[in-house]
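Reminder to self: tokens first, then the designed residues, so the page reads top to bottom the way the pipeline ran.
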């Protein structure tokens, strides 16, 4: 992950404080900061929020439905669809017709998920499991969608994805979010993972790679450096290259959007 080394070199560690200053950091905070430190300030310091969109509402609805279904030891398609109905997020749709269109998309996604799960011989150990672990003066926090124990006893850390931007194995090997979840399982839950997976529920496809602790160590350096900047309230410049994909751009005074 040479880009991490490049980023660390361009952003040297701040001067050590006589008294260490710590903060809590998660993958979402890390990603937001790396995209645009100013966006991080708006979201996590000033508490600005993006409105729901059809895609975000669908994603949240599916995650909540899967958690409710699996926590309740659901076994049938009807139970899964009932969990979906009970956990549907109504916000973010311009009209009822659009909402129903997206609701139907979700039903099809869950039907594919149910069929795929019938082939699974692993046991679910944890769902939506929160973890914490210390990193210098900081605390890393996260929530893993799912942790499975395979038939051979090895542990697989799984993150659900509801979008269609499917990564290949080489890309998944470099996925920072999964590496943080692997670290969280190991350092925060005392579980040694062997596998990391992105589970694309919309197409019933799972991309799995071995957990690489050596690569994860580099991610720890990145987490700690960003947490140092956040804790000290420094380095929040705007990076306008992400404005077009930022949900806050219509309110942000730093935004630069194409005409």
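Designed residues (259 positions):
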């Amino acid at each position: 992950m040479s880009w991490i080394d490049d980023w660390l070199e361009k952003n040297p560690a701040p001067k050590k404080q006589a008294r260490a200053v710590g903060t809590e950091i998660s993958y979402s905070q890390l990603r937001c900061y790396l995209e645009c430190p100013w966006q991080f300030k708006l979201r996590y310091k000033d508490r600005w929020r993006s409105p729901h969109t059809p895609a975000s509402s669908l994603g949240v609805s599916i995650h909540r439905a899967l958690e409710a279904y699996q926590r309740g030891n659901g076994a049938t398609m009807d139970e899964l669809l009932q969990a979906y109905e009970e956990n549907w997020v109504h916000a973010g749709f311009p009209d009822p017709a659009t909402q129903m269109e997206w609701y139907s998309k979700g039903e099809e996604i869950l039907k594919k998920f149910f069929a795929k799960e019938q082939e699974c011989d692993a046991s679910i150990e944890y769902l939506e499991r929160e973890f914490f672990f210390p990193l210098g003066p900081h605390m890393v926090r996260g929530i893993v969608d799912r942790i499975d124990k395979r038939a051979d006893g090895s542990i697989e850390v799984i993150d659900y994805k509801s979008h269609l931007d499917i990564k290949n194995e080489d890309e998944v090997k470099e996925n920072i979010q999964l590496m943080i979840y692997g670290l969280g399982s190991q350092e925060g839950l005392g579980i040694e993972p062997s596998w990391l997976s992105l589970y694309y529920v919309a197409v019933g496809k799972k991309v799995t790679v071995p957990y690489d602790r050596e690569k994860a160590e580099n991610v720890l350096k990145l987490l700690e450096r960003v947490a140092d900047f956040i804790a000290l309230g420094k380095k929040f410049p705007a990076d306008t290259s992400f404005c077009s994909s930022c949900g806050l751009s219509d309110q942000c005074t730093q935004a630069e959007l194409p005409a």
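The longest strand covers residues 123-135.
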